[in-house]
Amino acid sequence: PVVALSILFIPIYDTLRVFLRRMLKGHSPFHADKTHLHHLLLEGGFTHMQTTGILLAVNMLLVGATIGLQQIGLNKLLAVLTILAVSLNLLLNQWIQVRKKSIAVTR
Q1: Which ranges of the chain have pLDDT less than 70?
Q2: Is 15 helix (H, G, I), strand (E, B) or coil?
Q3: CA-to-CA distance for 70 and 1, rounded, in angstroms?
């Protein structure tokens, strides 16, 4: 069951992240925008194939971590996955900002 959760972790995390962000801005959580992870990656200059590869690699990392850490218990594992997802999200945001700047300089 925990491995199944880890497979769905990115879509669940991304949906909750976007819903929370929209509500904090005073919008409906169902208001359409382009703040999902795949939109951010595309905006950062990655191709559709690269975006798919990045999300797949992160998902594989989370599933691998889940399989490797199953023995620590469900609550601790969820905490580790959440910390890992938030850390990767922050890293990804920084990477996208750097990439946007380098794209802007070359234009």
Answers
A1: 107
A2: helix
A3: 10
pTM for this entry: 0.77
Rounded-to-integer distance, Cα 105 and Cα 88, Å: 26
Question: Is 22 within 8 Å of 28 (Cβ atoms)?
Answer: yes
User: Residue 38 in contact with residue 50, Cβ under 8 Å?
Assistant: no
Q: Are 65 and 57 in contact (CB under 8 A)?
A: no
Residue ranges of the alpha helices (H) in 1-107?
Answer: 2-7, 9-24, 37-43, 48-68, 74-106
3-state secondary structure of 53: helix
How many residues are given for the chain?
107
CA 34/CA 43 separation, integer angstroms: 9
Nearest Cα neighbor of 2 from 76, 86, 85, 53 is 76
35 SS3 class: coil
Write the pLDDT tens digit of every residue in 84-98: 888 888 888 888 788
